[in-house]
Design goal:
With 483 residues, this protein is an all-alpha fold. Helices cover 67% and strands 0% of the residues.
């Protein structure tokens, strides 16, 4: 068990009332490298834009980051190797539990070390600046740009399917351009746009779930366990399928990247992570049950457009086109959320490394225009030169690795800094972070073991190694500059 007040009977997202909800970034970590001592983040410093993000917006950002293309595309890569309904639902339930355990762990770090940047900031403080830089390098180059491209590419595909004669590539680029312009225009406008697009997405998914359970014609599939399920749950195909599921759940940590712009972050960050993850888990279980209940697995196996195929069985031929529009509209909020939070990592890196300082500047409205435009350029490049599945395979290993290192950091920080004020403590510690680490380690092992995912995973590690080289070649701030 963790420290006093961290028992399993507490509410998962409760925080001690006697601890003031204030900034605690002035605590220092006793790292060996002088550059590891990050400066206190004061209000008004470059890492802080205006604190305009409410709990609703922060939760919407978490939901929008999680509910992207994965829920509408990944089931087709699972039903071929996992032929039973119980195995599929267990897969998504395990993914939800793992994501929630990760969110509970990140919530403690986000409340104790309240600065924008996500893994970049956490790993820099907990391990060493170089580790944080590599995580930030992955995030700044492909960690957020790739998911934007992953959402924009099927957006173009779905809209083009409904509107014959339109160019999918043009549509993919257009949604990125429009959302970026909205985010560059005004923070309040961007916040309103994010809330509206996310609430619309949730409403559309609820409509799909309700319609799927309403229709009478169903497939001969059972969600009860059978004898073969025990072997399936510990098989390599299950682990590889979990990789696709965790890709669908990725984004549960989204609000930790914008801590510096969140109102009352020590309260808002834990709540937004927990509420967003729980909501998405419920939506995922519901919509996958509907897909399996209404659509033959043979039609979905190996297909990317699972949502559209299922839509034909749920709504009929005309309704299938409506389904495509629903999915496309939902993807808009994913593009917007990723384009919003990704540049905040780049800004945090620019504040710490002189070579990247030009990326840390904000305009008078608090918007990091340069960092946003850099990510915008990378997204456009990815859309033009790559495919959906290649992008997913390339980024997933590295993102899983750094998420695991961050969650392990909860243990390290508890041991190294026991007196650090923690306005929120991980519910269920040490069990919850241990569950996340066990599932992540199992996934990472199988991603390297399986021939279909080994090469892109190694390319992801090579990208991380390049970031490490760049860190040691870059000039650093002296200890005096950091104080």
């Amino acid at each position: 068990m963790g420290p006093k007040g961290c028992g399993l009977l507490r509410s998962p997202f409760a925080w001690p009332e006697e601890w003031p909800l204030q900034r605690v970034a002035t605590s220092r970590l006793n790292l060996t490298d002088a550059t590891a001592r990050s400066s206190p983040v004061q209000p008004g410093s470059p890492s802080h834009g205006p604190r305009t993000i409410s709990l609703l917006t922060a939760t919407c950002i978490v939901v929008a980051n999680m509910v992207g293309t994965g829920i509408f595309t990944s089931l087709g890569f699972q039903v071929g190797d996992l032929p039973t309904g119980f195995a599929i639902m267990a897969l998504w339930a395990i993914g939800g539990v793992c994501a929630l355990c990760g969110a509970l762990s990140y919530a403690e770090l986000g409340a104790a070390l309240p600065r924008s940047g996500g893994e970049y900031h956490f790993l820099r403080e907990i391990y060493h600046p170089s580790v944080g830089f590599v995580a930030g390098w992955i995030s700044a180059t492909v960690g957020f740009a790739a998911p934007v491209a992953i959402a924009a590419i099927p957006f173009g595909t779905y809209v083009a399917g409904v509107a014959p004669g339109t160019n999918p590539l043009f549509l993919s680029l257009a949604v990125v351009w429009i959302t970026t312009l909205v985010l560059l225009w005004d923070l309040k406008l961007g916040s309103g746009f994010q809330n509206a697009s996310t609430l619309l997405k949730v409403a559309l998914i609820l409509v799909i779930i309700a319609a799927g359970f309403y229709i009478k014609g169903t497939q001969p599939i059972s969600f009860l366990p059978v004898k073969t399920d025990r072997a399936l749950l510990v098989s390599t195909p299950f682990a590889i399928s979990l990789y696709w599921v965790m890709y669908a759940y990725s984004g549960w940590n989204a609000s930790t990247y914008i801590v510096g712009e969140v109102r009352n972050p020590t309260r808002t960050i834990p709540l937004s992570l927990g509420l967003g993850t729980l909501l998405v888990t419920a939506l995922y279980l519901g919509i996958n049950a509907v897909f399996l209940r209404t659509t033959p697995t043979a039609e979905m196996a190996g297909k990317q457009e699972v949502g559209l195929i299922a839509g034909l069985h749920i709504f009929g031929t005309a309704g299938g086109k409506v389904m495509a529009i629903f999915i496309a509209l939902g993807l808009v909020s994913t593009v917007s959320a990723m384009m919003w939070i990704g540049p905040r990592v780049t800004v945090a890196m620019g504040e710490d490394l002189p070579a990247l300082s030009w990326l840390s500047l904000r305009n008078g409205r608090g918007i990091p225009i340069r960092a946003t435009l850099v990510q915008f350029a990378i997204v456009n490049l990815l859309i033009l030169v790559t495919t959906f599945q290649k992008v997913v395979n390339y980024v997933q290993f590295s993102l899983t690795l750094f998420s695991a290192l961050t969650v392990f950091g909860v243990f390290i920080l508890r041991w190294r800094q026991p007196e650090l004020r923690r306005p929120y403590r991980t519910w269920g510690y040490p069990v919850t972070p241990a569950i996340f680490l066990a599932v992540s380690g199992w996934m990472l092992w199988h991603l390297l073991e399986d021939s279909s995912t080994r090469e892109p995973s190694l390319w992801g590690l090579a990208t991380a190694a390049l970031g490490l080289i760049l860190y040691y070649l870059s000039p650093k701030k002296t200890p005096n500059e950091s104080l």
